[in-house]
Amino acid sequence: MRASVIGPERQRMxxxxxxxxxxxxxxxFQRVQSTYSAREISRQxxxxxxxxxxxxxxxxxxxxPGSKTSxxxxxxxxxxxxxxxxxxxxxxxxxxxxxxxxxxxxNLFPETEGQLIPLPVxxxxxxxxMRFHESGDRKAAEFAYRQAIEEGDSIPDAYCNLGILEFxxxxxxxxxxxxxxxxxxxxxxFEAHFNLAHLYFEAGDLRLxxxxxxxxxxxxxxxPNLYFNIGLVHAVTGDYSEAVTALNKARNMVADEDRLKxxxxxxxxRKAIDGER
Length: 277
Prior knowledge:
The protein is mainly α. Helices cover about 60% and strands about 0% of the residues. It has a two-stranded antiparallel sheet.
């Protein structure tokens, strides 16, 4: 997350540190993507890459058309399945029980012999919008997102990504409006909670920022970006003990190469603690 700390709290931190860029989009927001790699799915949903590949090999998870064996991608349709897995985990189901549920779904179609049959799928407005967004065609993406909303196609996702476009265009009030509309249509929309938290942080409302990060953490407790950002909120408000706890939690969830910047922030926090003694 790119922090822009407001007011006296800014003076408390010696240095502002971005979350490792490999873990997030450059703007700091969580955009709903048209395709995901196994690693991106692993980070966002707290599932091991080994398990993701296992379920994929078993035919329990659809993959993006044209995916290569060495570089499997998961598309927007796959995302719905991962969201379903997330909800089952929130309900307290074990991974083995979830796997059984996925097998049960697959067994509804015995003629597939263990594999989902890829069918030609017409590109929907929301998928078209995401592709425009990812290619950098903002005007076409905005038009397509609005078309998706009008047609009732994945409305929360459309509002969420439209909010990111508005923020990047310097229209923060419109961004707030779109993120809240996403939550109106789906109060459990993970990306919208995360993005509202980020936006409140940018606006200097740290209380609401922390609230939405914590709501997002209830939906996806295994997403390291959340704990980094929660730690940063605690740090800029001077609650260093809670900051260290959250940052250590984030640190334990990422690979070694992503721990360097977290360690750097932890060093700065410890310096701040020593300075207050």
